[in-house]
Design brief:
By secondary structure, the protein is α/β, with parallel strands linked by helices. The strands form three sheets. Strands 4-10-9-8-7-5-6 form a seven-stranded mixed sheet, sandwiched between helices. A four-stranded mixed sheet has the order 1-2-3-13. Strands 11-12-15-14 form a four-stranded antiparallel sheet, covered by helices on one side. The mean pLDDT is about 95. Helix 3 packs antiparallel against helix 10 and helix 11 runs parallel beside helix 13. The protein has two domains: about 140 residues, Alpha-Beta Complex (Aspartate Aminotransferase, domain 1); about 240 residues, Type I PLP-dependent aspartate aminotransferase-like (Major domain) (Aspartate Aminotransferase, domain 2, 3-Layer(aba) Sandwich), CATH 3.40.640.10.
């Protein structure tokens, strides 16, 4: 056994079933392990490294900022944070940004803001958050309570009150649940961890209409779908639906820990001084990295590239579907793609890893492909050839 793995097994909390690989280096869409073996990465740190590994422009921005100023309290202004907030608000529906360290924290902020907004209006009965079954919003107590997957809750009961869940894509179930106690509906535009579950054409528009009619806020969790992952900068752009609050994280700083909650001027007023805070939220270092990511994506049209290669990728996966009866569906947007199988996916993931490809299985039977957005068609072709070989042995 690798010495590093032996050391890790002695000292790390056993909260992950890790693969027996120690990665030591990366470049673009390629990773290398401690033995010098190369792998093509189609997971990107779980939709985090959108610009790939060790991007020289991002590395330079981090290095330059680290040499100047890494952290001061949010009691003071810093230039990278201001510029990042300007970029995000100018390129979205939002007027205000709150920065934190992770997706769970961004969703915590959104939940708190929704409740605080109605509290400030004097509507103190509006405290309920409605989310979707099979959703994933985080592992803090509030975000775990909002999450619609029972498997992450086992052993942690009692959960927090004030959360209800309805089936995703079932507008009638949502309509029956909405009442004057509901302050917000919290949804992922596309359920990533839930199986790359996509909404029907008009589902999110109808959700928006119901929220308007009921006086509830609409929160979009774009922690996995945002930052260009679906072929739009933000997934809500696919559906002509504007949320009241949106959460971001994962790819925001291309691997540095950062989250953000965006909202409108009217709603943001509920968060006055002292209402919410984050010690490390939007430090100069992570803000400089995130700003660099966004500016690079815009300058080099990375989102357009994602849409183009995503269409190519799905086409190639559909060709495999025509060939193998155990492939039930291929779905997704951009480079958030799921392949639903009638068999377990874990053995396929392991065989691909042995052949030098990093892929992911969720919900036991769904292969998820979330490579860096800079992936090229020849790299996609190589994975397709690998999958074809693996599938032949099933």
């Amino acid at each position: 056994m690798n010495t590093y793995i032996q050391q890790a097994d002695n000292v790390l909390a056993q909260t992950y079933a890790r693969f027996p690989v120690v990665f030591t280096k990366g470049s673009e869409c390629t990773l290398w392990d401690s033995n010098g073996n190369a792998y093509k990465d189609f997971v990107a740190g779980i939709a985090v490294c959108n610009l790939g590994h060790a991007h020289p422009v991002i590395a330079q921005a981090i290095s330059q900022q680290a040499a100047n100023l890494v952290h001061v309290s949010n009691l003071f202004y810093t230039v990278p944070q201001i510029k990042l907030a300007q970029f995000l608000t100018e390129n979205s529906f939002a007027d205000r940004a709150f920065f934190c360290n992770s997706g769970a924290e961004a969703n915590e902020a959104a939940i708190k803001l929704a409740r605080k907004y109605f509290y400030e209006k004097g509507d103190t009965d509006r405290t309920v958050i409605v989310s979707a079954k099979q959703s994933f919003h985080g592992r803090t107590y509030a975000t775990m309570s909002a999450t619609g997957q029972d498997k992450i809750k086992k052993g942690f009961y009692p959960l927090l009150p004030g959360f209800k869940r309805v089936p995703f894509n079932d507008i009638d179930a949502l309509k029956d649940t909405l009442d004057k106690t509901v302050c917000a509906v919290l949804l992922e535009p596309v359920q990533g961890e839930g199986g790359v579950c996509c909404p029907s054409d008009d589902y999110l528009q109808k959700v928006r209409q119901l929220c308007n009619q009921n006086g509830s806020l609409l929160i979009f969790d774009e922690i996995q779908t945002g930052m260009g992952r679906t072929g739009k900068l933000f997934a809500y752009e696919h559906f002509n639906v504007t949320p009241d609050i949106m959460t971001l994280a994962k790819a925001l700083a291309n691997g540095l820990p950062m989250g953000a909650m965006l909202t409108t001027e009217t709603i943001a007023k509920a968060f006055g001084p002292g209402a919410h805070a984050s010690t490390f939220g939007g430090t100069p270092l992570v803000s400089a990295a995130a700003l660099c990511v966004l500016e690079y994506m815009k300058e080099h049209q990375i989102v357009n590239h994602c849409e183009t290669v995503g269409n190519y990728f799905r086409k190639k996966l559909m060709e495999l579907k025509e060939k193998y009866a155990f492939i039930m569906d291929v779905r997704g947007y951009g480079l958030l793609i799921g392949m639903a199988l009638s068999i377990k996916g874990a053995p396929i993931v392991n065989k691909c890893l042995e052949k030098g490809f990093v892929i992911n299985c969720i919900q036991d039977t769904i292969l998820r492909f979330i490579p860096p957005l800079i992936v090229q068609t020849d790299e996609i072709d190589a994975l397709i050839d690998c999958l074809d070989l693996v599938f032949q042995d099933i």
